[in-house]
User: Which sequence fits this backbone?
């Protein structure tokens, strides 16, 4: 399956890491690594993986303005189409539905759904694209950080289960980047735009697939950020 579009969330208030004392510029996507915003490295990797068109979603005009400036300074890295979408700030999981409602239609049938403050290898994007078919959705699978367990994920015989009745001691987490489709976006209102309901629904119907990542997940809390940024530094230094 050829997937060439990415929906990238670059907004948010970074409330949890701000409360822990981090001075976040604009949003987490603009935290700098090796002199560049994380969004720069994120888009560079998406482009290297074959993504040609992007939709950048922010809940503040400044986020979108800064992203436009950043794109203008990426030299030979050019996307064939760039769209900017100011979302109502209702949460990242609702973004595909909010963009789906745009007229004329912006979203492809299948697309990468990513957060602009993570850094993945191009090979990881290619792997999640290759696993996508017309019946499933793909999450990235990460080792769960003790400070942010996210969901109680159970792996068994290449299947994935979400055991919400279990204590939150899972060793794995599901997070962006994802590969989803327009059908997924249409179902989000019926699932309350809630990640617990989304995972339960797709796990129950055996439509939930995953690809393990060598890189850490997009970070929500300071402990995750402190693990992620040095790994990003090392990866970029060796790239």
Assistant:
């Amino acid at each position: 399956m050829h997937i060439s579009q990415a929906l990238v969330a670059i907004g948010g208030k970074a409330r949890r890491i701000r409360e822990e004392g981090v001075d976040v510029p604009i949003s987490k996507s603009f935290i700098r690594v090796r002199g560049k915003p994380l969004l720069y490295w994120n888009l560079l990797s998406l482009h290297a993986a074959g993504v040609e068109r992007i939709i950048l979603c922010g809940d503040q005009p400044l986020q979108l303005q800064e992203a436009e400036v950043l794109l203008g300074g990426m030299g030979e890295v050019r996307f064939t189409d760039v769209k900017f979408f100011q979302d109502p700030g209702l949460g990242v999981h609702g973004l595909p539905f909010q963009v789906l409602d745009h007229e004329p239609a912006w979203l492809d049938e299948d697309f990468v759904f990513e957060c602009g403050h993570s850094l993945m290898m191009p090979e990881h994007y290619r792997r999640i694209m290759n696993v996508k078919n017309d019946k499933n959705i793909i999450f990235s699978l990460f080792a769960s950080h003790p400070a942010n367990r996210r969901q109680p994920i159970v792996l068994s015989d290449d299947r994935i289960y979400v055991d919400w009745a279990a204590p939150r001691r899972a060793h794995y987490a599901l997070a962006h980047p994802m590969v989803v489709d327009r059908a997924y976006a249409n179902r989000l209102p019926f699932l309350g735009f809630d990640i617990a309901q989304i995972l339960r629904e797709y796990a129950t119907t055996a439509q939930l697939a995953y690809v393990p990542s060598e890189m850490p997940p997009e970070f929500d809390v300071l402990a995750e950020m402190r693990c992620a940024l040095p790994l990003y530094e090392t990866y970029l230094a060796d790239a």
